[in-house]
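sanity check this chain:
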Amino acid sequence: MGRLNSRGLTIDVELPAARKVVDERTGKALGEGKRFSFRWNGIEPVFFSYPAD
């Protein structure tokens, strides 16, 4: 298992096919897909959203 540090970690999140995914921490539109990568600093949650069709 890796250690948390000030550089953080990149984590991948896999979803059923999703569209209009948004990184709610940055406001950045991530678009469509099944797999998304996020930088995680070990303190703040990874927070994203997409519309339920």
Remarks:
- Residues 9-49 form one domain.
